[in-house]
């Protein structure tokens, strides 16, 4: 595999020579600026061998480097060995930005041209690169070349899987009503129409789902909304008879996926068009230069609408969490005896959990690849076991299991760190600090409209008290049978101004990772809901949607406050009350013990 990577980089350099380019940037994005992409767009993985969901490779004639975040530092270092690609750790002191690195690398180069494929790069990314490269010795950016067309000879095609209907009883709002809300939001911004590129936004708007992207129930398409018409650009094979009839009833025209660019150039007749610069590719911004319409570069109104769940979606989440909780209880009851019996590995426990989830009604898929990291592997934030790394489990220490499922009525995301037997005093101490942070965020009360950044410290406080921290976000939105990562709101240290509103889902997942030793993370998916209204305004609180015991074996109870103990006992009582009617007698007995009050 390493030799293949070296050959691919050499072939790219040959192409760069023919095109008189000094460097080329390969991002991790697709034509829709998705977080997770279909195989057709995994160019960065094909070129570098690094398979994390976030990372950008830059190749010059002499050097190559990959930029990724803290979730993937350890995995990237392993995967890049022998490729000649240097690891650049984003947000770590001393790490140059891509433009800074290119400025140094190309200081003596005769060519000052840097390439990036504008079809898979957002307008915001391209504009920022243009400005920053210009400041690095007058470097220029070219966006009209996709080198993979020539280099990736066995490149997978764009998916053509069929689309399915999401029933109104689960969606909770008719497509016509959603389109009216979107048009109203556009009118408020004095916009005639918009191009929708984000796949989950399209699926939500149209109450449709697909299977084009691993773990994400979306389909590859574009949507153009105008004052009097709506057009879906999608491959004809994807549209079944039932979906075609549904779209016709909604007055939504269907055109081939590849015709969207020409439509924007020649057939869009609005005075202006909204294009979210963070979702729309630079290529489509360029298409509008051939049209008289003005591009309004503002955030899409759809993510904020989609983030606030309606009553049907919330009810679906509750049902999905119950079924997922049943699968988790069956799994946790099985786990320790299975490890004690021997023969279990990180991969086999992941397979067992998947099998138990598949038994649940309305199960469609996992919501992301399961992370099952035993001891040192638990310190790799987004670790995924492979046959080469698959660790045997022993009846001691900690295993971190981060997993989730796609049910037709809801998406789940849960992490539990479990003691497989005796643990060290250090593991017990760290586990309890992380649990304290998790509980403090669940207990938080905050003003309506506060941002996630303003409440992030609730979860980090117990760790900060001891000079400890984690570099990933504390929480993200979760889709209603949609993408497991959903915005615009987040809970994280970096400033994210998106307001928190009642009806939003968000995860609570603090952690701590000691490289080469162990990691701890505890995660529930929460619902933000009203708390109280006072003279100072409306206040919000959290409710756990996730239903699964939190392992009490590794807890140092002396570190928990009485308030935290009360929360944990109350949560466990709720878990038992909701799940016990769905279990058989041995499972109920196990759950009763797992949720027994501590004090």
How would you state the average pLDDT, rounded? 96
What is the class of the largest domain in the CATH system? Alpha Beta
Could you name the CATH homologous superfamily of the largest domain? Creatinase/methionine aminopeptidase superfamily
The assigned CATH architecture of the largest domain is Alpha-Beta Complex
What count of domains describes the coordinates?
3
Query: Rg to the nearest angstrom?
Result: 25 Å
**In oligomeric terms, what are we looking at?**
single chain
As a percent range, the share of helical residues equals 25-40%
Strands of the biggest beta sheet: in what spatial order?
Answer: 4-3-2-1-5-6
The number of helices is: 19
CATH topology of the largest domain: Creatine Amidinohydrolase
Tell me the overall shape.
Answer: globular
Strand-residue proportion: 15-25%
Through-space gap between termini: 54 Å
* Global structural class: alpha+beta
Poorly predicted regions: none
How many strands in all? 28
Biggest pleated sheet: 6 strands, mixed
Structure description:
The structure is a single chain. With 599 residues, the chain is of the alpha+beta class. The protein has three domains: 2-151, Creatinase/prolidase N-terminal domain (Creatine Amidinohydrolase, Chain A, domain 1, 3-Layer(aba) Sandwich), CATH 3.40.350; 164-305, Creatinase/prolidase N-terminal domain (Creatine Amidinohydrolase, Chain A, domain 1, 3-Layer(aba) Sandwich), CATH 3.40.350; 308-594, Creatinase/methionine aminopeptidase superfamily (Creatine Amidinohydrolase, Alpha-Beta Complex), CATH 3.90.230.10. The strands form nine sheets. It has a six-stranded mixed sheet, sandwiched between helices. Strands 8-10-11-12 form a four-stranded mixed sheet. Strands 21-28-27-24 form a four-stranded antiparallel sheet. The chain starts with a helix and ends in a 5-residue tail after the last helix. The model has no long low-confidence stretch (mean pLDDT 96).
């Amino acid at each position: 595999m390493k030799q293949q990577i070296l050959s691919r980089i050499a072939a790219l350099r040959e192409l760069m020579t023919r095109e008189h380019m000094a460097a080329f940037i390969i991002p991790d994005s697709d034509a829709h600026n998705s977080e997770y992409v279909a195989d057709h767009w995994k160019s960065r993985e094909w070129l570098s061998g690094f398979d994390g969901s976030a990372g950008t490779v830059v190749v010059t004639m002499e050097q190559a480097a990959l930029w990724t975040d803290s979730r993937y530092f350890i995995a990237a270092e392993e995967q890049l060995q022998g490729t000649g690609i240097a690891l650049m750790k984003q947000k770590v002191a001393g790490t140059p930005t891509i433009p800074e690195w290119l400025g140094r690398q190309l200081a003596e180069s005769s060519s000052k041209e840097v390439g990036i494929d504008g079809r898979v790069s957002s307008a915001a990314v391209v504009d920022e690169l243009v400005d920053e490269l210009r400041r690095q010795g007058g470097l220029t950016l070219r966006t009209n070349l996709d080198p993979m067309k020539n280099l990736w000879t066995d490149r997978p095609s764009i998916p053509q899987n069929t689309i399915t209907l999401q029933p109104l009883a689960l969606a909770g709002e008719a497509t016509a009503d959603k389109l009216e809300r979107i048009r109203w939001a556009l009118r408020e911004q004095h916009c005639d129409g918009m191009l929708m590129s984000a796949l989950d936004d399209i699926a939500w708007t149209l109450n449709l789902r697909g299977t084009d992207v691993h773990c994400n129930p979306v389909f590859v398409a574009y949507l153009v909304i105008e004052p009097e018409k709506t057009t879906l650009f999608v491959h004809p094979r994807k549209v079944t008879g039932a979906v075609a009839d549904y779209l016709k009833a909604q007055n939504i025209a269907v055109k081939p996926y590849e015709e969207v660019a020409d439509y924007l150039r020649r057939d869009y007749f609005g005075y202006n068009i909204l294009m979210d610069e963070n979702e729309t590719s630079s290529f489509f911004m360029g298409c509008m230069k051939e049209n008289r319409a003005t591009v309004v570069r503002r955030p899409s109104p759809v993510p904020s609408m989609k983030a606030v769940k309606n009553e049907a979606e919330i009810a679906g989440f509750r049902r999905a969490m119950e079924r997922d909780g049943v699968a988790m209880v069956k799994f946790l009851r099985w786990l320790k005896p299975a490890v004690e019996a021997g023969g279990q590995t990180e991969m086999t426990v992941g397979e067992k959990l998947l099998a138990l989830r598949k038994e649940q009604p309305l199960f469609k898929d996992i919501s992301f690849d399961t992370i099952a990291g035993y001891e040192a592997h638990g310190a790799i934030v987004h670790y995924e076991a492979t046959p080469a790394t698959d660790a045997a489990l022993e009846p001691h220490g900690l295993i971190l299991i981060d997993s989730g499922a796609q049910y037709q009525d809801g998406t789940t995301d849960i992490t539990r760190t479990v003691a497989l037997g005796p643990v060290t005093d250090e593991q017990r101490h760290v586990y309890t600090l992380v649990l304290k942070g998790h509980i403090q965020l669940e207990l938080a009360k905050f003003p309506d409209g506060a941002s996630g950044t303003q409440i992030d410290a609730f979860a980090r406080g117990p760790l900060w008290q001891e000079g400890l921290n984690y570099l990933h976000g504390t929480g993200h939105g979760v889709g209603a049978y949609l993408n497991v990562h959903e915005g615009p709101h987040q809970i994280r240290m970096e400033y994210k101004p998106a307001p928190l509103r009642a009806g939003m889902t968000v995860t609570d997942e603090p952690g701590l990772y000691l490289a080469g030793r162990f990691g701890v993370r505890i995660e529930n998916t929460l619902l933000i809901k009203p708390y109280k209204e006072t003279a100072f305004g409306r206040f919000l609180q959290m409710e756990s949607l996730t239903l699964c015991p939190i392992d009490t074996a590794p807890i140092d109870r002396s570190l928990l406050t009485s308030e935290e103990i009360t929360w944990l006992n109350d949560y466990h009582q709720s878990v038992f009350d909701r799940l016990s009617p769905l279990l058989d007698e041995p499972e109920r007995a196990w759950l009763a013990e797992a949720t027994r009050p501590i004090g």
